[in-house]
Amino acid sequence: MRISTLTIFERNTSSLNRQQSDFLKVGQQFATGKRVINPSDDPQAASRAVGVGQAKAITQQYMDARITARNALAQEESVLNSISDAVISAKTLLVQGANGTLSDADRSSVAAELKSIYETLYGQANVTDGNGRYLFAGYQDNSAPFIKDAAGKVSYVGGNTAREQRVDASRLMPVADNGNTVFRSVHSSAGYIAEAAADNAGTLTFSGPLVLNSSDANYGASFTLSFTENADGSYSYSTDGGASLLTYEPGQPIEFAGLSLTLEGIPADGDSIQLGTAQNMNPDLFASLEKAIAVLDTAVAGDPKQQAQLDNTLKTVMRELDNSLDNVLTVRASVGARLNELDVIDTVAGNRMLNYEQTLSDLLDLDYVQAAAEYSLRMVGLQAAQKSFVDIQGMTLFNYLN
């Protein structure tokens, strides 16, 4: 069989190109550090790597989301700390305001300080995050959640749902509590509060209520103690207008529904005292401070009725502030627990990312020892092919003629 010179050149050129392609491929693997550069290099490994890469990208997105959530929760925790400090300062001022030796001017000074705390709390309630969103507005975070009416009373107009963010595939976490939860709620364990009616005309004051038996059948209900003047000038009382009237004796505890309430002073006909759980009475922090400021700004000197109103209001507000402080501390503890949970999720996600990196490395990364051996082999093959081609193309019959 005769082989033409053209065929010899074509076959040698094809062999050289193939050897050079294999040699350059190993060099490219060295340059990139990857065994699989094109999907055709290892289709199965390339396919698995795509899936692992997608899972890694999703995990990274959740890690970025947790950074945002952590920043929001850290800011809320800082604000809640300021709020609790403000409530403690307000309680201190109420204790000072309840001092019977103070003059009306002194109490007005206390009221002025309390107003400053009130404004501070109002500002904290309408605080924004770094993106201009109102922290305690829920999902209605484009406008202030608390507003003042013409009389200066604060009301809540924000959303009633805490803003949430997905921080992991299976965890949707609240990252900002709404204003109702922080400023207008009390803990479920908060007990009873007593409050004298604003239009009471007597000098009746109260202490308590104290809980005697929380398992009483009527415990948890709301009550109104109503006082009636008898023909002989004595007074009787009933709960919620009941037909059975009991004689009122100053200083003697009144016991009902597992509660005990001690009364002093002389009531007027029609005076009343309301009793109820903190959740059913006044859980609004701003409303409590408004009552305290108003009563401290009212002249008391020489007016037993106003003195009784001052004593009763301050006792009620003190209990309400205690409950509000407990609530703020509970919310703050919840925020701290969520921050700790983010740390745990981050740890798990970090381990997951390491697993993804290891899997991708096993699938795609280059074994340098094996690649070095193959690089040397390909170089020898290419050099041999080149030398063979040079030797073959130089062969001619004229070399054998004498």
From TrEMBL:
TM segment ranges: none
Keywords of the record: Bacterial flagellum, Cell projection, Cilium, Flagellum, Secreted
Residue ranges of domain Flagellin N-terminal in the record: 3-140
UniProt subcellular location: Bacterial flagellum; Secreted
Claim: Metal-binding is one of the keywords in the record: no
A Pfam family that the UniProt record links to this protein: Flagellin_N
InterPro entries named in the record: Flagell_FlgL, Flagellin, Flagellin_N
Family of the protein in this entry: Belongs to the bacterial flagellin family.
Protein name: Flagellar hook-associated protein FlgL
The species this protein was found in: Denitrificimonas halotolerans
